[in-house]
């Protein structure tokens, strides 16, 4: 192009400084690719990036039931990042939850899951991270109350709940099933959200995937076998969801949006198939039938639904699959913990834009328009209409969540 | 002194349909593109979701969707013998402001101009002899055949619903047999018609016409466009034109392009930045960029290799005038081209009132209609009729928004008990047939700068001098009579004919289809831009929009505006970038 | 009304597709805002009550809260003419040039209502407009509409045009703005209100479709007892 200053996109070149740590690296293409893929399966970028800032430079606040923890800088910048860390240091963190100075890391960092990863995988991640652009960025002080601000306390937590050691395949299962189980319980750390926490913040029953609650969201039951939360999702539905952010049943938003944006949409199809295979193998106990809700509440809820919701979700609750979530049969709607349903009505929600489906179709907020009893009525209506039978929501439930979100 | 900013490859002035299309095309070609929009950011879930969208007072009557008149308006008069006075608020047309422009608040009626519309001068002269005195009609300089692939792209981008009438030359019985050939069918089926459309179609058929479903940018089903962007199905809420669509079911820049474009690293959008003028080098033959101002009054100089005007037709014309590019048209001498051939749309209607049938017109959509094309363009013999051009006749069911749409039969008082009774009785039982006709260019109708009134920055307002011409009046009378004949056969109790008579009135809403002012043509002596929408005078300046129409056609303009934009984008990508300079050499 | 969108009044570069939870650009109801005096409201009730009277077809403009609506609107950006081009010079134009008064709506109302009552007092033995017989009230409205009544300092025709426009707005607007109280305007004509989905009734084929009207903020059917 003559006489014309057109620039094409210049990708920021990775600067690799010669530090002691980097000298001991394997920077072969195969090794870096393995590390890059490991970073994807572990979804490192989502937590180690503050919104709108440099990737992997940390300082993102993580709300935990006990206070705010800021994620560290995992670029290899010398002063504020991992520049002085050796491979062994990194392994200790990933495998045992121990920092370079020997102190305990908080389990908001999912080392209880990462401990399932083999040494070679962790080394590859180390090697890959060392090639990323180095960013100098201090992380703010954590905001944790006593005694949790004493890292020593975590030691006790570890004694109670931490079970280190790499993933052990079940020889009775297929290779794909074992790969799926490894991804789900190892790098994917799905139980981090999808399992109930005990009072001390540890996954109950070591990650049963029966649903959990954190940051004022209820993550659904993702067991895919009989009676599981994903019982009516096919194998292909699970793959499509992880690949594109939506399927005929649902769309991802909030935390799961990040998982898909940074992690699963970049994973190879074979791995997604393995995850689906594994999840579909997990049966669950039948649920109790809750009591039918009050008629008057259902009547009001139906009117509110017709006037506010049907334009997208349609009058029969079937929605527009892959566009506007069906509510009939929805795992999110049927979740015994209605936190997510109430929250989405209050605040709205935005479906994750992915490479395959770039449109972030969004639900508007209703918190300004509907009062607590109206939100309770419409939530009760959708949870108990069509074939849904998930029990009533009270105005008090809505009020409580409204207050928690305002704090 | 404006603060000088780093150079970009392309600066787009305004960020509606044409800018979004260009930004998508040019970033894909590897260019760095910056769009400057004087309004704010707007998107579906925050600014016009269903929780707030169906609000007639706010969005239409208090004009939240439109350009802020307090900062800038235009002055208007019917003829040079009058003093132009400012349009103190919008009326007859409604320019958009903010991201997406008028593409957010349009109805979605999406057409391809007829092949003969692009050759309005040569075609009509050949068939009917010399044009009437005063008509300054001319050919576009680009043909339908050349634009066909670009019409096709826009229809697929938007998910237009309709029925083909001419598939590669094969006439299709249920479509519009008069349309130009199309390389493929519409990407979606037509909308679901209601009672009024069925009555219209029966009546039109009885008169020997061939009614067909209007092409619609309101989605007749869920749609994923070629960029992978998703549009939801229309729910027929009756809040299209003058409103943003709350459930992603009307094609707009937001619902077709922005999800992809806004992620592109080569694209930058700055809102609340108004371009004041185009800067040029000392030769005057090269644009060096633009000067723009933010809401705090800070001014910036934005250098660019290519400047493209993508604002509304009125604003593109005015920006050229304020930048001193080209000579402003003077109707006394016929000299000058900038502001020449300003045209509009000539509309009329026939209301139909039923005794015991309900039209329930609240269940409607912006482009829900059946129509006929027998009286459009040169689809009929004009011999002895005293005019050229024409328009379509359609029965739309767009809305029952009661502040705006409350039809009353002939002879109803304008207010009081009798008015109230008539409104109550007819609100759900009436419909209307619209005629939508071409306004042909005339030497007396033009745009220039007002000598008296200024905008918020102290610069002259645009002055519009416009009235319907003898050609327009004869055309609309003919169309109105055809509509009356259809209306009488629709099974109603009575009809009310609302012809377009008297001088053009700038206040009652008619259409936002203002055209001309920066017209295109075959040479620098008859046009402001060449057939690629490139300025003859400043080759690195391009002008998009309906301002380039040498005269208007019977159809709504958006489809043709978009096709011309894709056409220009292709010329820039495939030819201009390789050899920056005039794309047409005389 | 709930959360108002924190709309940035400053220029900015937009990255991605901005979205935040719980953010909506909500309508401004102007509830609690006033411009009119008691006397002005009294006159306005009488005027709008003749334009859309209460009769056997249902409540009229005063009962629909049109005066409340106009009062709130005049107290807001509409009354101030904030979004109208209000630069001088002001001249009388032809009808096709639209509103050309130097007064923004609120001041136009203030002057017109005062002049109208002054005119009535002088002409009808000290009586205000609101105190006249309905026939006389109608006759004055007809004269204003036709431009046959000259009011001190204001064009009666311009005022009539604005008054009639605002009366229809107040009668048919969403009830959140203070007019169309209990949706009486919508009930009169059968408009189902601020709904967003009519797919289920599209094939009505000329039969009536009965739907209770609903406002943006709901209606009785949303009430949970």
UniProtKB/TrEMBL annotation, chain A:
Gene Ontology, cellular component aspect: plasma membrane
Residues that hold heme c 1 according to the record: 44, 47-48
Sequence positions that bind heme c 3: 309, 312-313
Residues annotated as binding heme c 2: 190, 193-194
Cofactor requirements of the protein: heme c
Cofactor: binding comment: Binds 3 heme c groups covalently per subunit.
Signal peptide start-end: 1-24
Subcellular location: Cell membrane
Main location: membrane
Pfam families cross-referenced by the UniProt entry: Cytochrom_C (PF00034)
Assigned keywords, A-Z: Cell membrane, Electron transport, Heme, Iron, Membrane, Metal-binding, Repeat, Respiratory chain, Signal, Transport
Span of domain Cytochrome c: 30-133, 175-283, 296-386
MF GO annotations: electron transfer activity; heme binding; iron ion binding; oxidoreductase activity, acting on CH-OH group of donors
Protein name: Alcohol dehydrogenase
Organism field: Oceanibaculum pacificum
From TrEMBL, chain B:
Keyword annotations of the record: FAD, Flavoprotein, Oxidoreductase
Gene3D superfamilies attached to this UniProt entry: FAD/NAD(P)-binding domain
Any one GO MF annotation of this record: oxidoreductase activity, acting on CH-OH group of donors
Domain named Glucose-methanol-choline oxidoreductase N-terminal: residues: 231-340
Domain Glucose-methanol-choline oxidoreductase C-terminal: 443-564
Domain of life: Bacteria
Family (UniProt): Belongs to the GMC oxidoreductase family.
Classification via PANTHER family: LONG-CHAIN-ALCOHOL OXIDASE (PTHR46056:SF12)
Protein name: GMC family oxidoreductase
Organism in which the protein naturally occurs: Oceanibaculum pacificum
């Amino acid at each position: 192009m003559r006489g014309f200053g057109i620039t094409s996109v210049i990708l920021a070149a990775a600067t690799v400084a010669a530090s002691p740590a980097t000298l001991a690296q394997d920077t072969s293409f195969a090794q870096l690719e393995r590390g890059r893929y490991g970073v994807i399966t572990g979804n490192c970028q989502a937590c180690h990036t503050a919104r709108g800032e440099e990737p992997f430079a940390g300082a993102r606040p993580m709300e935990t039931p006990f206070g705010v923890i800021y994620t560290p800088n995992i670029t290899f910048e010398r002063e504020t990042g991992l520049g002085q860390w050796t491979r062994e240091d990194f392994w200790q963190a990933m495998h045992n939850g121990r920092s370079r100075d020997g102190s305990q890391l908080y389990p908001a960092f999912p080392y209880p899951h990462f401990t399932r990863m083999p040494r070679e995988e962790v080394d590859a991640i180390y090697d890959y991270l060392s090639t990323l652009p180095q960013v100098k960025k201090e992380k703010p002080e954590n905001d944790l109350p006593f005694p949790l601000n004493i890292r020593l306390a975590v030691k006790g937590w570890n004694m109670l709940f931490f079970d280190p050691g790499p993933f052990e395949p079940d020889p009775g299962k297929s290779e794909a099933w074992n790969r799926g189980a490894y991804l789900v319980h190892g790098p994917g750390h799905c139980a981090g959200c999808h399992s109930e926490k005990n009072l001390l913040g540890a996954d109950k029953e070591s990650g049963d995937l029966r649903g959990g609650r954190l940051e004022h969201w209820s993550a659904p039951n993702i067991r895919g076998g009989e009676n599981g939360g994903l019982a009516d999702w096919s194998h292909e539905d699970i793959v499509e969801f992880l690949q594109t952010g939506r399927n005929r049943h649902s769309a991802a938003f909030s935390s799961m949006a990040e998982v898909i944006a940074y992690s699963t949409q970049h994973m190879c199809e074979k791995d997604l198939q393995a995850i689906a295979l594994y999840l579909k193998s997990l049966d669950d106990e039948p649920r109790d039938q809750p009591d039918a809700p009050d008629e008057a509440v259902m009547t009001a809820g139906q009117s509110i639904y017709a006037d506010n919701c049907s334009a997208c979700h349609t009058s029969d609750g079937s929605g527009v699959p892959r566009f506007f979530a069906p509510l009939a049969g929805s795992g999110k709607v049927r979740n015994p913990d209605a936190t997510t349903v109430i929250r989405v009505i209050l605040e709205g929600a935005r479906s994750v834009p992915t490479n395959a489906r770039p449109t972030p179709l969004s639900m508007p907020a209703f918190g300004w328009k509907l009062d607590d009893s109206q939100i309770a009525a419409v939530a009760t209506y959708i949870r108990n209409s069509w074939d849904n039978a998930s029990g009533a929501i009270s105005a008090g439930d809505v009020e409580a969540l409204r207050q928690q979100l305002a704090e | 002194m404006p603060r000088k900013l780093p150079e970009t490859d392309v600066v787009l002035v305004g960020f509606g349909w044409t800018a979004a299309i260009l930004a998508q095309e040019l970033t894909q070609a590897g260019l760095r593109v910056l769009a400057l929009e004087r309004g704010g950011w707007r998107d579906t879930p925050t600014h016009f979701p269903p929780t707030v969208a169906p609000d007639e007072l706010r969005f239409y009557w208090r004009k939240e969707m439109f350009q802020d008149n307090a900062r800038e308006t235009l002055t208007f008069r019917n003829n040079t013998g009058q003093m132009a006075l400012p349009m103190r608020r919008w009326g007859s047309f409604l320019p958009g402001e903010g991201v997406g422009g008028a593409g957010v608040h349009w109805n979605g009626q999406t057409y391809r101009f007829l092949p003969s519309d692009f050759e309005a001068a040569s075609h009509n002269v050949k068939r009917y002899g010399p044009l009437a005195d005063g008509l300054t009609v001319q050919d576009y300089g680009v043909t339908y055949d050349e634009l066909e692939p670009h019409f096709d792209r826009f229809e697929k981008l938007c998910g237009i619903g309709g029925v083909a009438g001419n598939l590669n030359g094969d006439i299709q019985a249920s479509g519009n047999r008069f349309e130009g050939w199309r390389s493929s069918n519409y990407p979606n089926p037509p909308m679901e018609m209601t009672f009024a459309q069925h009555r219209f179609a029966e009546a039109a058929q009885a008169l020997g016409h061939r009614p067909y479903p209007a092409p619609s940018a309101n989605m007749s089903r869920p749609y994923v466009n070629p960029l992978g962007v998703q549009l939801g199905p229309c729910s027929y809420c009756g809040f299209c034109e003058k409103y943003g669509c709350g459930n992603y079911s009307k094609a707009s820049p937001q619902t077709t392009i922005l999800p992809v474009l806004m992620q592109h690293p080569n694209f930058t959008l700055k809102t609340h930045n108004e371009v004041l003028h185009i800067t040029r080098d000392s030769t005057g033959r090269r644009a060096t960029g633009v000067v723009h101002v933010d809401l705090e009054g800070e001014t910036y100089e934005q250098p660019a290799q290519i400047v493209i005007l993508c604002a509304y037709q009125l604003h593109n014309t005015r920006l050229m005038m304020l930048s001193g590019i080209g000579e402003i048209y003077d109707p006394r001498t016929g000299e000058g081209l900038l502001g020449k051939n300003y045209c509009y749309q000539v509309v009329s209607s026939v209301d139909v009132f039923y005794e015991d049938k309900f039209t329930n017109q609240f269940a409607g959509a912006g482009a829900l209609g059946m129509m006929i094309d027998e009286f459009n363009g040169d689809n009929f013999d004009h011999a002895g009729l005293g005019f050229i051009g024409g328009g379509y006749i359609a029965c739309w069911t767009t809305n029952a928004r009661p502040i705006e749409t409350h039809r009353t039969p002939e002879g109803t008082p304008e207010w009081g008990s009798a008015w109230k009774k008539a409104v109550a009785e007819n609100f759900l039982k009436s419909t209307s047939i619209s005629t939508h006709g071409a306004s042909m260019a005339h030497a007396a109708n033009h745009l220039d700068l007002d000598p008296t009134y200024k905008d918020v920055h102290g610069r002259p307002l645009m002055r519009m001098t416009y009235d319907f011409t003898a050609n327009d009046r004869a055309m609309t009378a003919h169309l109105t009579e055809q509509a009356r004949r259809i209306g009488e056969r629709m099974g109603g109790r009575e009809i009310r004919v609302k012809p377009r008579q008297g001088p053009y009135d700038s206040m009652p809403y008619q259409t936002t289809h203002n055209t001309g002012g920066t017209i295109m043509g075959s040479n620098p002596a008859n046009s402001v831009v060449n057939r690629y929408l490139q300025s003859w005078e400043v080759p690195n300046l391009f002008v998009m929009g309906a301002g380039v129409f040498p005269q208007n056609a019977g159809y709504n303009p958006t489809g043709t505006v978009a096709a011309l934009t894709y056409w220009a984008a292709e010329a820039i990508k495939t030819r201009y970038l390789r050899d920056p300079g005039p794309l047409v050499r005389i | 009304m709930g959360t108002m969108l924190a709309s940035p009044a400053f220029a900015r570069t937009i990255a991605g597709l901005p979205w935040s939870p719980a953010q909506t650009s909500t309508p401004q109801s102007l509830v609690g805002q006033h411009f009119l005096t008691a006397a002005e409201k009294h006159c306005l009730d009488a005027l709008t009550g003749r334009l859309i009277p209460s009769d056997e077809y249902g409540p009229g403009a005063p009962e629909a809260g049109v005066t409340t609506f106009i009062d709130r609107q005049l107290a807001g950006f509409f009354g101030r003419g904030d979004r109208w081009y209000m630069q001088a010079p002001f001249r009388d134009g032809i009808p096709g040039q639209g509103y050309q008064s130097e007064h923004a709506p609120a001041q136009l109302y203030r002057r017109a209502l005062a002049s109208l009552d002054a005119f009535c007092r002088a002409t009808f033995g000290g009586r205000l407009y609101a105190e006249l017989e309905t026939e006389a009230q109608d006759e004055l409205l007809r004269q204003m509409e036709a431009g046959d009544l000259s009011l001190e300092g204001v064009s009666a025709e311009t005022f009539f045009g604005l008054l009639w426009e605002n009366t229809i707005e107040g009668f048919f607007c969403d009830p959140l703005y203070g007019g169309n109280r209990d949706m009486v305007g919508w009930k009169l004509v059968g408009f189902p209100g601020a709904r967003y989905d009519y797919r289920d009734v599209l094939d009505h084929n000329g039969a009536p479709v009965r739907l209770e009207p609903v406002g943006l903020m709901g209606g009785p059917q949303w009430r949970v007892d």
